[in-house]
Amino acid sequence: MLNKKKKYIIYNKKIKFLYFIEKKIEVGISLLGWEVKSIKLGKLNIENSYIKFKNLNAYLLNFIIIPINNFNKNTKEEKRSIRLLLKKKELLFLFNKTKKYGYTIIPLCMYWKNNWIKLIICLSKGKKQYDKKKDIKEKEWKKIRNRILKTS
User: In sequence order, what are the residues at sequence separation of 6 or more whose Cβ sits closer than 8 angstroms to the Cβ of residue 117?
Assistant: First the structure.
């Protein structure tokens, strides 16, 4: 289900560099009509967003959706806390992991599934500076190795 190639609305490229991804979960999002129209036009930013728990519900915070010009701007908030639609079992699992083990929950990407907008969230741990340097060295080595293999 998560491994199929999908056409993403938005994909957060920084996640794999900054965090170790432990588990990916597909969730639904509770959006308003103007937000869906703005997302269709690609007017959104997912880069600094994260997930917090309030009253045993998961909310997406710091997710920016830029309003379309032809609507009344008084009724819109660019940074609104958006409720995530999770099963109770998944919600309790994520809540326990964040409280006990210090995991972070971050949105990875957003895509269309039939007529619904879905979000893939990651249960992740932050990388240290030496982990990031190690990743950069591995990428450089792969590039060099591929060049050597092509020439020989």
Answer: 9, 28, 29, 31, 36, 39, 110, 111
Tell me how far CA of residue 1 lies from CA of 4, 87, 112, in angstroms: 6, 17, 13
Separation of alpha carbons 72 and 75, rounded Å:
6
Residue 85 burial (CB count, 10 A): 14
Decide: 121 and 105 in contact? Cβ < 8 Å: yes
Q: Are 147 and 140 in contact (CB under 8 A)?
A: no
Longest pairwise C-alpha distance within the chain: 64
Report the first-to-last Cα separation within the chain, whole angstroms: 39
Question: Per-residue pLDDT for the chain (152 aa), expressed as one digit of tens each?
Answer: 555 567 889 998 888 888 899 999 999 999 988 888 888 888 888 988 999 999 889 999 999 888 887 655 555 566 778 999 999 999 999 999 999 988 999 999 999 998 899 999 999 998 888 888 998 999 999 999 999 999 87
| DSSP-assigned beta bridge partners for residue 119 | 27, 110
pTM of the model: 0.80
